[in-house]
Design brief:
With 122 residues, the protein is mainly alpha-helical. It has six helices and two strands. The chain has a two-stranded antiparallel ribbon with strand order 1-2. The longest helix is centred in the C-terminal third of the chain and has 19 residues.
């Protein structure tokens, strides 16, 4: 999975924060509160995100309504998986990653590992 470009990330951030369907007009209006951007630019990038399967869409009258296809966490997990795949030694890469975690993150990892073990056993 490729990392999102700057504008792609800015658009996806809105879908993830809002956690609801949205139109291109809503995205443009929100971005324009902070900086100027053309409607056509956001339309183009949103269509690209749809074709890359980051967004789903449905017609409501003449307007496309978009929704994030996955959560921000699923996107981050896919990036981590790609990072592991880039290594010739996945266990070493994973150990290096875990070595950078703080106490709270380590506790979350332990909890996730216990849950994964229970699912594997069950």
């Amino acid at each position: 999975m490729r990392r999102l470009g700057d504008l792609e990330a800015e658009i996806m951030d809105r879908f993830w924060r809002w956690n609801r369907p949205a139109t291109v007009r809503e995205i443009v209006d929100d971005i324009n509160r902070h900086r100027d951007i053309a409607y056509t630019t956001v339309t183009t990038v949103t269509t690209i995100l749809f074709h890359k399967a980051y967004l789903t869409r449905a017609r409501e009258g003449r307007i496309w309504v978009y929704r994030a296809a996955a959560t921000r966490e699923a996107y981050a997990a896919a990036l981590m998986e790609d990072g592991l795949d880039a290594s010739e030694d996945r266990p070493a890469a994973l150990a290096a990653f875990v070595g950078n975690l703080d106490a709270h993150e380590l506790a979350a990892l332990r909890s996730a590992l216990r849950a994964a073990e229970r699912r594997a056993e069950g």
